[in-house]
Amino acid sequence: MSNNGTDLTHGFISSSVAILLFVSNYVPLKKYDTGDGMFLQWVLCAAIWLVALVANLILHCPNFWPFAMVGGGCIWATGNIAVVPVMKTIGLGLGLLIWGSFNALTGWTSSRFGWFGMDAEEVAKPLLNYLGAGLSIVSTFICSFIKSEIPKNTCSMDTTPLMTEHVTNKTQDPCPGSSWVDKLSPVQSRMVGCSLAVIAGILYRSTFVPIIYFKDHSKRNDSIYAGASQYDLDYVFAHASGIFLTSTIYFLAYCIAMKNNPKLYPEAVLPGFLSGILWATVTCCWFIVNHSLSAAVSFPTVTAGPGFIVAMWGVFMFKEIQGQQNYLLMIFAFLIILTGALCTAFSKI
């Protein structure tokens, strides 16, 4: 088999693994109260860094590029802050459908047209590529009509944070485990959830910009990045280091804002760590897909497909999406997403 054929095989296998694990990434968190998500964010990012460290050792410690850490990692950690509020306002299924569509669309646009200093990518069948991107827009529009029902947080012993205020205060919140998300009205929840899902999708996509920039400029002798690795996985440790550093800074700032009284949820530690391991594995596979199939193909295929499967979990396991009309809209949106992903994937061949 030719090198090109081998790359395609590795790309599609890694894409399948990424989609499978992407579906399971945030599911462990649904059964546990995570408050405002700041503590969970730090636990999840610690797990990501550990997995990336192992991958870095396996790769024999390739060159470390600080820009991949400061750029991509910081952007991802910023977008990831929105995950818990999105799950609490519009649900995991609908949230992933929306941010997956914007992730795919932003990734396709920046890679296809060469935004942010990257080289524009060429595909064998441009018409299929454009059609796939257009269907991502249509699917997002349809998702906006899907209604989700998310139960509000209620006070119980199971949702009591690990650290609470020890000084008696008569005006204390009767539900100390609740966060600002739990206090939103239904209309506010939907507006906040959809907006944060869009922002998260755009930021998630932008995390790969420094790596693609390195690869493009490594081919130019006059660039300071001349000779940089063309293998995306060589940048995974710098990427994860930026994620962990940024999440630590955010968590320290959160502790200061909470006057050294952060809300820590012990039951979320193991699920959060498992979620971080799954996400880090997805990212390693995603980097391989970027190398084998290019970003213009990988983003629509990896981000669009899992949304429907998670939406199914939202229907049957978490009961977030109910009603015949919502079911039909969700199935219609999935068919469009699937068609768009296939069009984009085969446009490379």
Structure description:
The protein has 349 residues and is mainly alpha-helical. The chain has one domain (3-148, 183-346). Helix content is 65%, strand content 0%. It is built from twelve helices and no strands. Mean pLDDT is 76; it is low at 154-174.
Task: Give a brief description.
The protein is mostly helical.
Task: Tell me the layout of helices and strands.
Blueprint: H1 3-24, H2 38-58, H3 66-80, H4 83-89, H5 92-113, H6 126-143, H7 186-206, H8 209-217, H9 236-257, H10 269-293, H11 295-316, H12 324-346
Helix pairs in contact: 1-10, 1-11, 2-9, 2-10, 3-7, 3-9, 4-7, 5-6, 5-7, 5-11, 6-11, 6-12, 10-11, 11-12
Helix percent reads 55-70%
Number of strands: 0
| Mean pLDDT metric | 76
Give, in order, the helices and strands. HHHHHHHHHHHH
- Structural class, judged by helices and strands? mainly alpha
Q: Tell me the strand percentage band.
A: under 5%
State the separation between the terminal residues, measured CA to CA: 15 Å
Count the DSSP helices: 12
Q: Please outline the major beta sheet.
A: none
Radius of gyration: 21 Å
Tally the structural domains: 1
Task: Please mark out the parts with pLDDT under 50 across 5 or more consecutive residues, or reply none.
Answer: 154-174
What overall geometry do the principal axes of the alpha carbons give? globular
Features:
about 350 residues; about 0% strand
